[in-house]
Amino acid sequence: MSFKELLNRNGRRTIALLTNITNTYYDYRLFRYIHNAALSHNANLVTFNSCSLDSTLNYYYEYQHNLMFYFPHTGIIDGLIFPPSMVINYSTKPHYQKIIDRLSSIPYITLSSSCDGHPGIFIDNSVGFREVINTLYHNQGKRLFAFIKGPPDNSESSERYQGFLDGLNDCGIGLDERYVFQGDFWLTGGYAAMKEFDKRNIPRPEVIICSNDYTAFAIYKELVARGWSIPEDVQVVGFDNTEDSRFCNPPLTTVNQPLEQMAHTAVELLLQLIDGKEISQRTVLPARVIYRQSTGFGSYNFPIKYKYDPLSIILEPRCREFALKWLQTLPVLKRDQLISSFVDMLQKTLDEEMDVSVWEDFPMIVMQSYPEVDSSLIDSLRLFISMYSGLQQGVKLTQFRQNNLVNAQVVHRIISTFTVEELQQCISEEITKRGIHYFFMVTYPEPFELSIDSQKNIPLRSRYLFGSVNGNMVQRKVHTSFFRTMDLLPLDIELPDKPLSLLVMASFFREMQLGYMIFDASSDEEQVYAILGMQISTAYRGILIFNEKEKKEQALKSALNQLKKSNRKLNELSVCDSLTGLANRRGFMLLGQKIFEATQRQGKGILIFFGDIDRLKFINDSYGHEAGDLAIKLCAEVLKKTFRKSDIIARIAGDEFTIIAVDSRDCDVEQIEERLKENMSALNQTSGYSWKISISMGHALSSDFPEGSFSELLARADHLQYEQKKRKHRS
Question: Is the pTM of this model over 0.70?
Answer without folding.
Answer: no
